[in-house]
């Protein structure tokens, strides 16, 4: 076992340039008292910058009123035919709203995994897929640079990246977040529709004006114009825009959709703890449809709500989807 990291982690601060651990310290599983909430750290030269997520609990999901706003093209596949009258009824995929205790200490990557992060894994021989770094934009294609989020990777691809990070630190501590961990971190202690309030500006997130106008028009029944919004039509670099939530996590809403390790369910499971959500995710070995979160550059504003859910297949690669990782900060009981 490597020597203790207590002294190193006590020295971590909220500086823009996080400390990097010495190679001899890699592999230590950190216990929560050694990192203050919202501390930034980088465990190795090729590891992502992480932010320690404060402990607590939250209300996961959406109210009935908010969830039913999603009777739109996004969730048209979640309608079922009522046998009594033959009409289709909306299945509220964001309900039941329920309390979740976050009982697994963890840190989350400050940004989405970038093109440069991914290609470092490829060059190390650990990631086998080389994703297309060109993206369809309006009538043509645009290149993505090293600081853009990596896209055109599937859930199965991300497992290679996570395994590589764990090999660098010598411990099985990095993974994708569960749906509960993602939503808790995205909300950042807030209870509004978005981390900044009940609307999002074009400076706070990268999303689609056109889709927002369309969806808001469908919900209101009237034509909607939003000249305050923009259509960028492409992901932006991870440090572009004023996109940090109150905990410093960037582009949780918007930019690219983010894959979680949770298996899709048509409604929330209503589980009481983060560890219960993790246990469910780990026992669904045959799961082929995952839970995605966050919305993207092609999404309406409503899709950026932390409560929103979508369902990517585990083997699908496309230009709107990326991911970010978390790091557990202690072993789970019984592990």
What does this structure look like?
By secondary structure, this protein is of the alpha+beta class. The chain has a single domain (54-328), classed as paralog of FGE (formylglycine-generating enzyme) (Alpha-Beta Complex). It contains seven helices and 14 strands. The protein has a five-stranded antiparallel β-sheet. Mean pLDDT is 84; it is low at 1-16, 22-33, 72-77 and 331-335.
User: Uncertain regions: pLDDT < 50 for 5+ in a row?
Assistant: 1-16, 22-33, 72-77, 331-335
Distance between the termini: 17 Å
Run of helices and strands: HEEEHEEEEHEEHEHHEHEEE
- What overall geometry do the principal axes of the alpha carbons give? globular
Provide the descriptors you would attach to this structure in a database record.
single chain, 335 residues, alpha+beta, paralog of FGE (formylglycine-generating enzyme), five-stranded antiparallel beta sheet, three-stranded mixed beta sheet, 14 strands, 15% strand, globular, disordered N terminus, disordered C terminus
Task: Give me a quick take on this structure.
One of its GO terms (molecular function) is formylglycine-generating oxidase activity. Residues 1-23 form the signal peptide. The chain has 335 residues and is of the alpha+beta class.
């Amino acid at each position: 076992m490597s020597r203790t990291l207590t002294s190193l982690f006590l020295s971590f601060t909220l500086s823009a340039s996080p400390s990097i651990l010495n190679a001899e310290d890699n592999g230590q599983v950190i216990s929560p008292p050694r990192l203050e909430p919202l501390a930034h750290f980088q465990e190795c030269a090729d590891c992502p910058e992480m932010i320690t997520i404060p402990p607590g609990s939250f209300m996961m999901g959406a109210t009935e009123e908010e969830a039913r706003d999603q009777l739109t093209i996004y969730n048209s596949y979640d309608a079922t035919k009522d046998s009594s009258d033959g009409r289709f009824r909306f299945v509220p995929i964001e309900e039941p709203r329920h309390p979740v205790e976050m009982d697994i200490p963890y840190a989350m990557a400050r940004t989405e995994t970038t093109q440069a992060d991914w290609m470092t894994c490829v060059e190390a021989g650990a990631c086998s897929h080389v994703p297309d770094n060109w993206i369809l934009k309006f009538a043509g294609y645009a290149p993505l640079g090293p600081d853009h989020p990596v896209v055109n990777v599937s859930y199965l691809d991300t497992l290679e990246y996570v395994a590589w990070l764990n090999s660098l630190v010598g411990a099985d501590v990095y993974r994708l977040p569960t749906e509960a961990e993602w939503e808790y971190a995205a909300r950042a202690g807030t209870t509004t529709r978005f981390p900044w309030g009940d609307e999002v500006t074009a400076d706070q997130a990268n999303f689609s004006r056109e889709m927002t106008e369309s969806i808001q028009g469908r919900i209101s029944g009237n034509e909607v114009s939003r000249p305050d919004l923009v259509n960028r039509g492409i992901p932006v670099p991870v440090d572009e825009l004023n996109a940090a939530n109150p905990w410093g996590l960037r582009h949780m809403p918007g930019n690219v959709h983010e894959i979680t390790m949770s298996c899709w369910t048509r409604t929330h499971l209503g589980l009481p703890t983060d560890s219960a959500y993790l246990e469910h995710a780990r026992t669904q070995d045959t799961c082929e449809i995952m839970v995605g979160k966050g919305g993207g550059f092609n999404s309406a504003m409503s899709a950026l709500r932390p409560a929103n859910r979508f369902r990517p297949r585990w083997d699908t690669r496309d230009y709107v989807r990326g991911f970010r990782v978390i790091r557990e900060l202690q072993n789970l009981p019984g592990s």
